[in-house]
DNA sequence: GCCAACGTTGGC
DNA sequence: GCCAACGTTGGC
């Protein structure tokens, strides 16, 4: 089975790459995704061993700060059933979970973040979903070539 | 904090 | 099923 590649966004004020490093086993359940397209990529596309670009959004400057991997395929997001969680979904049913998580494990921090501005300078990354006008998916696929290019830029 | 772009909701 | 209103995302 061929490995797949992804980009996952997080607001560092909420959950940064450093926060991932600080997790037990440097692993976290990627909870709180409440967009169907992103959910579908996680549920139907992601498999253990897939590679992830970790992207910091809504900060200054924004960009890819390191790499992670999928360490467990999709399973139900517990926060949808937790009334105390900000991610609580009152319409979600235990017997038919609507929202899923995957486990994400830290792999590396870039020597220098690959900023959005820098990505836009690279003609070979022109097709990246991240760079398309209006694109705002928090979980999105990248190609192997795009992944390699960005890792190389990160050093 | 602003606001463009996108997604969801709900009345009809 | 349409679409206006509303909510969210995320760069700037």
SSE diagram, text form:
Layout: E1 5-10, H1 17-22, E2 27-29, H2 36-45, E3 51-56, E4 63-76, E5 100-115, H3 116-119, E6 139-142, H4 144-154
Parallel strand pairs: 1-3
Antiparallel strand pairs: 1-6, 2-5, 3-4, 4-5
The protein binds a DNA duplex (12 and 12 nucleotides) through residues 9, 11, 34-37, 57-58, 60, 62, 116, 133-138.
Description of the molecule:
With 155 residues, the chain is of the alpha+beta class. Helix content is 20%, strand content 32%. The chain contains 4 helices and 6 strands, in the order βαβαβββαβα. Strand 3 and strand 4 form a beta hairpin. The protein starts with a strand and ends with a helix. The mean pLDDT is 96. The chain binds a DNA duplex (12 and 12 nucleotides) through loops.
The total count of helices amounts to 4
Please tell me how large the radius of gyration is. 15 Å
Mean pLDDT: 96
What structural class results from the helix and strand content? alpha+beta
Element-level helix/strand string: EHEHEEEHEH
Number of strands: 6
Approximately how much helix is present in the residues?
10-25%
* Principal-axis shape: globular
Oligomer: single chain
Main sheet summary: 6 strands, mixed
